[in-house]
Amino acid sequence: MTQTTMVFHPRPGAGPEKPWTFPTPERTTLANGLSVLRVHRPGQRVVAVELLLDAPLDAEPEGLDGVATIMSRAFSEGTDTMDAETFAAELERCGATMDAGADHTGVQVALDVPASRLERALGLMADAVRAPAFPADEVDRLVRQRLDEIVHELASPARRAAIALYAELFDSATRISRPRAGSAESVARVTRDAVVDFFTTHVRPATGTLVVVGDLDGVDLDGILERTLGKWSGSDAPATEVVPAAADDTARVVIVHRAGSVQTQVLAGRLGPDRHDAVWPSLSIGTYCLGGTLTSRLDRVLREEKGYTYGIRALNQSLRSGALLAITGSVETDVTAPALADMVAVLKTLAAEGLHDDERDAAVQNLVGVAPLKYQTSRSVADSLADIVAQRLSDDYLPELYKRLAAVGTADASDAVVAGFDPGRLLIVLVGDAAQIREPLEGLGLGPVTVID
Amino acid sequence: MAGLAETFTATEHRLGNGLRVVLSEDHIDPVAAVCLWYDVGSRHERPGRTGLAHLFEHLMFQGSANVHGNQHFEFVQSAGGSLNGTTSFERTNYFETMPAHQVELALWLEADRMGGLLDALTQESLDNQRDVVKNERRQRYDNVPYGTAWERLVAMAFPAGHPYHHMPIGSMADLDATTLEDCREFFRTYYAPNNAVLTVVGDIDPEQTLAWIEKYFGTIPAHDGKPTPADGSLPPVIGAEVRETVYEDVPSRSLMAAYRLPVDGARESDAADLALTVLGEGESSRLNTRLVRRDELAVYAGLGIMRLVGAPSVALLDVKASGDAEIAAVDAAVDEELARFAADGPTPAELERAQAQIERGWLDRMATVGGRADELCRYATLFGDASLAFTALDRVLEISAEEVRAVAAERLIPVNRAVLVYELADESDNTDDPTDEHTDTDATDNAEGQAA
């Protein structure tokens, strides 16, 4: 007999919770001084490897911004025994990908490969950092490619906003104020000699850390490491010094003019405390309540009530020192001023009234509860461990963080997010059509408005 | 290395109302994914209502009989879960990845909106989500360089009136014209249990899970009024090159193209995937080696496949020119590489590399319960058999070098492509075309905002 009406049932509760613990790494050190963190993740047949080199961007020589990026890309351009094309082909024959990049915390080389071909791929990675050829013609080509890439970055509203925010927020004398992979002017000066100098000065096993995550059942990881990265040698050196960050968070608006934009890219930010600060768990909960998801305060108004945006988010993102606290998204050009007025109103209401217990509860339940989902893959575990290594946190930082997140109270989360996202201390960068958006912004009291090209 | 079929298994079931159910156990982590595919996509939309399937997907998160406002998101996220929905040409999917002890909640939520969405659908939520979707379109298509390239290419590769002529995002005018009654009718037509596949993968008790599914979904009435979608079949080869040149304020010149390929599911479509991988995926691919490394004509050169079942699959070529390189030189180099490949096929080393890369892709997709659930839904919905997901890789690995060469020779030819050329705006008298739309290789659209 055909059913004609659905029978609705009450919303079910949860079943008995099953235990899950954050995969804790085991730490060892190779004879050459390279630190190794390994995590066995059953069932994860792709192994994720991350090599962290203590070669931060502020170690780049004056005027050579981008040399660390070119060096990291040149790792896969050939070794003492292989030319660049052979190297790329060998990696792909393993079903592997290797990506290297330079950030403020250091140079990172990421390798993903099926466990069955781990030794071959780790051998290639070891050759790349142990005996890179850095052929002059390939380095020159990477420089030209990076110059091409810059043109594309500048055309992207989101990238353009980030470049402008860092330039405005931080002292121009500090490396963090300038693009990670260098500007057209500085990259053009990078030569093979500059790459070799940077490599010789900053790349060595003794200050590096290797993270290996995946199903290591039946994998003789110690033997593989000894036969690959174990062959890398180099002198000892002290860890690089972390210079405390400072920023100018005077409230102001900077419009990057982009004629004809149908949306305005918004990036409002300032410098805040990082993961070393005791306030971090409270700040993380508070930031989630403000703008972690579609039902957080910002999207509740700007997206779900007003329809001004596809989505706007608040984030707290660790830097080498300090963290960027930011609100980011894009809004329709015509409603730029009302959207910013709403954004500030959300922040002021939050400051005046604080968070509610149910918001705090939802944030804790989500941020803590999603851990088993978030850390399913080798790559996600490796990335998170790489971050804590890069930020010089202890190996058990993540499991401890989850305990602290669960214990954050409503008042602490409120205080942290209100102090962090003070609308009177926000630098607001807008990438959009200045001719259309400037005037309506002047009256909002967001601080002086300037337009740059 | 053990194949996927030795590692994973799935069982299929069917409720009395026609809902197909796929279950797959995996107890390694205490997590489970619920994934629901409705057999409706932008190909089912009628003229004047492009974008309706995707807009409707947004409305599915606006509440249902016993779920108010944004509670769908709130309940899932507060349970430690994550969720989203996406719309493509051929299907709309919804998924929740949950801690294992919260699976029942996800099933209840999906059932409540499958059976009770219209109880909560209002003009207010339609108007709001219409604005959100229009802002999604601006963010992903209209406000970024090359933003509308794939939309234009798809429209050129599939003729006017063809069900795949327009992208899932739809046009602003059609989004504006959509009424509440359109949405109600769309729901009544397509959101029926007998037009869906529900997959649950992970740390589950299959018997208990099936009992919950029967309890929550079993009384939702079946509905048989779904019209047959317009026929998407086309001749294998376009016949003559279709070419359009646009002058825009873009960072560099670009050559982009779409080639018709065999329909997904056919052995030839796997051969095409291998051909495109050799030619256009990865650092050692032929196009990258020739255009980026050796001739330095391009800063990026790649080829990828968009698999389709109800129409020819499509090969998407994307070349971003380097510095002052001219499109004519890029075009000539691409043609030469494709012609050489069509004549000689892949070398044994190239075929081995392509197989290894495709294997890696499958291992990555199988690494999460959500990835597995989505693949099981895909094979059940589009090919009638979920377990084909676990043997798909084996089928790719059986393809010979000669099959790879043959499909390239037949399909990757100038008379089978739509070409879109971007020239720089200041090089033309006719600078800005106000009718221009503007990017994305991804034919799916997410309901949740992506923060930069």
Give an overview in words.
The complex is a heterodimer of chains A (453) and B (452). Chain A is α+β, with helices and mostly antiparallel strands and 453 residues long. Chain A is built from 17 helices and 12 strands. Chain A has helices spanning 67-74, 84-93, 118-130, 136-155, 157-169, 184-187, 192-202, 221-227, 280-291, 297-302, 336-353, 357-369, 371-374, 378-390, 397-407, 410-420, 434-442, and strands at residues 26-29, 35-40, 46-53, 97-103, 106-114, 209-214, 252-257, 263-272, 309-318, 323-332, 427-432, 449-452. Chain A has a 6-stranded mixed sheet, with helices on both faces. The longest helix of chain A is centred in the N-terminal third of the chain and has 20 residues, at 136-155. Chain A starts with 25 loop residues before the first strand and ends with a strand. Chain B has a 7-stranded mixed sheet with strand order 1-2-6-3-5-4-12, with helices on both faces. The radius of gyration of chain B is 23 Å and the shape is globular. Chain B has 452 residues and is of the alpha+beta class.
Tell me the layout of helices and strands.
The complex is a heterodimer of chains A (453) and B (452).
Chain A: E1 26-29, E2 35-40, E3 46-53, H1 67-74, H2 84-93, E4 97-103, E5 106-114, H3 118-130, H4 136-155, H5 157-169, H6 184-187, H7 192-202, E6 209-214, H8 221-227, E7 252-257, E8 263-272, H9 280-291, H10 297-302, E9 309-318, E10 323-332, H11 336-353, H12 357-369, H13 371-374, H14 378-390, H15 397-407, H16 410-420, E11 427-432, H17 434-442, E12 449-452
Parallel strand pairs in A: 2-6, 7-11, 7-12
Antiparallel strand pairs in A: 1-2, 3-5, 3-6, 4-5, 8-10, 8-11, 9-10
Helix pairs in contact in A: 1-4, 1-7, 9-12, 9-15, 9-16, 12-15
Chain B: H1 4-7, E1 11-14, E2 20-25, E3 31-38, H2 52-59, H3 71-78, E4 82-87, E5 92-99, H4 103-116, H5 123-142, H6 149-157, H7 172-177, H8 180-190, E6 196-202, H9 206-217, E7 242-248, E8 254-261, H10 267-280, H11 286-294, E9 298-306, E10 313-321, H12 327-344, H13 348-366, H14 369-383, H15 392-397, H16 401-411, E11 417-424, E12 445-446
Parallel strand pairs in B: 2-6, 7-11
Antiparallel strand pairs in B: 1-2, 3-5, 3-6, 4-5, 4-12, 8-10, 8-11, 9-10
Helix pairs in contact in B: 2-5, 4-9, 10-13, 10-16, 11-12, 12-16
